[in-house]
Amino acid sequence: MNLNDIKDLMAQFDRSSLREFSYKNGTDELQFSKNEARLVPEVTAQVAPAPVQATPSPVAPTSAPAETVVEETSAPAEASVAAEGDIVESPLVGVAYLAAGPDKPAFVTVGDSVKKGQTLVIIEAMKVMNEIPAPKDGVVTEILVSNEEMVEFGKGLVRIK
Fold first, then answer.
1. Helix and strand tally (H, E) in the chain?
2. Predicted TM-score (pTM) above 0.90
């Protein structure tokens, strides 16, 4: 990949609504990110023990954002207890679509039986529609994304039991 190709990708990324972009091809590897704060996991680790230890004074200046982070992390934990199965993760960054078009039925719904290779979701990345197939036969127990939601690499899309 030459320098002009990289500059073009950077310009397209800057104009897009994507927050992160990752590209691998043989020996070439690029990662772009518009995310400003990568300290969220560290903040979560520092804030999570605070309610248990009941020492709010050192955490007081950041208490409002910390409460938001704690609420966001507790909701998926509750959802994972209710649903069973393996999570199918996003292999790339892009926009998830649950149906082939706005007037088309969803690829899968909760309770559907799926066969290995059946399309679960489409992820649009750089104007390319990438079908995400079921890795195994099973039953859909949970859909973890909404239609037209921006997904990151590794984000859970569907849970199959």
1. 4, 10
2. no
